[in-house]
Design a protein that fits this description.
Shape: globular
Structural class: alpha+beta
Radius of gyration: 20 Å
Order of helices and strands: EEHEEEEEHEEEEEHHEEHEEHEEEHE
Oligomer: single chain
Strand order of the largest sheet: 6-7-12-10-11
Number of strands: 20
Largest sheet: 5 strands, antiparallel
Bound molecules: flavin-adenine dinucleotide, NADP nicotinamide-adenine-dinucleotide phosphate
Number of helices: 7
Amino acid sequence: MEILVQQNTNLKALNTFGLDATAEYFVAVDSTEQLEEAFGFAKDKKLAIWVLGGGSNLVLRHSIPGLCIHMGIESLDIDGQRVQVGAGLNWHQLVTTTLNQELFGLENLSLIPGQVGAAPIQNIGAYGIEFSEVAVEVNAHMIDTGESVTLARSDCGFGYRHSVFKAELRDRAVITSVVLKLESEFQPRLEYAGISNFMDANKLPLSAQSVSEAVCSIRRGKLPDPKNVGNVGSFFKNPWVEEDLAAALRLADPQMPMHKQAAGGFKLSAAYLIESAGLKGLRVGGAAISDQHSLVIQNDGKASFADVLGLADKVKQSIHSRFDISLDIEPRIYPD
Ligand code: FAD
Ligand code: NAP
């Protein structure tokens, strides 16, 4: 089917922050053929391309020049432990479908909003598991050449909330599908105290379904639901600090949570730093630090792009002057 390109499309309903943004051109694609057509349209008109998945990790400016491509390829092919998934499938739908087929490995990643195609971008992670652990390869179309490429996991540059798609391939590749290898036997990963405490308290049996249920319940209790309150989850990455700074911080506050990293240094909790700095509830215009989770910036309904970035700047400055730590923003800013 031919693509239908719209002009001046409002994206408020397509980003979970609920920011009022307008795309100069907008097209939804549900096949690689349609994606290629969209590339052709952008090339003819010399338009920049912006890919939009579920819009749950994006901070949109009011006006977005160029062509916004909404990914809608929703294929799913399960062959034993090998699972090939279209980029447009909802992530949590993939988690529940695979669990129902007794394929394991995604349970800790339950209820992460967004699409499968965005999972490699920041190497989504939760409760001690990252996308990279189940990834085999990522298929993409290159924007400049239209060429279709396959990247093996080892070529994806996966790191903590990071990948090659945020670096060398930033804005150069549109992911069309991913291939995963899941486990046929459940191997519990309960190192995050939140899950095991919840399972014990609720007397849940040790199964993949229970872990998924626990993760969903904890998330529903802890995080504002984007359906009711605009947000993009964690606004800042958890910072990594050297041993020296960690020691100084520990001396000043022996309660400060610190997680030793295999590569050296410590990962700190950005949420704890924000609370310690007394920033919970801080607001700029319609944007506020969530009362529910201090790593979340929420839209009280009328927040503008400037409100959100203004608040983020205040938080960054305050954390820097108090702890000598630079916080990095996690979601992508469009256009940046
Ligand atoms: P979008 O927001 O649409 O896009 C994000 C980035 O990916 C953009 O740069 C976009 O261009 C790019 N992109 C998307 N699809 C493609 C594609 N097919 N090809 C190329 N580029 C593409 N994240 C975590 O890691 N762990 C969590 O536990 C977590 N919890 C969250 C909880 C809440 C309540 C919310 C709102 C967000 C949370 N997030 C979490 C962030 C977010 O859900 C993930 O980053 C998710 O993968 C984003 O998916 P999306 O489809 O919404 O991507
Ligand atoms: P939590 O379990 O209360 O833990 C607080 C922080 O400490 C987390 O950010 C986590 O880091 C870290 N942590 C806890 N136990 C750890 C361990 N055993 N080893 C290493 N680090 C540990 O966190 P939460 O806020 O409720 O979130 C739970 C999980 O969901 C976390 O993994 C978090 O990243 C993820 N999440 C992500 C987003 C997002 O938008 N990116 C939003 C909500 C939740 P990590 O964050 O590095 O895991």
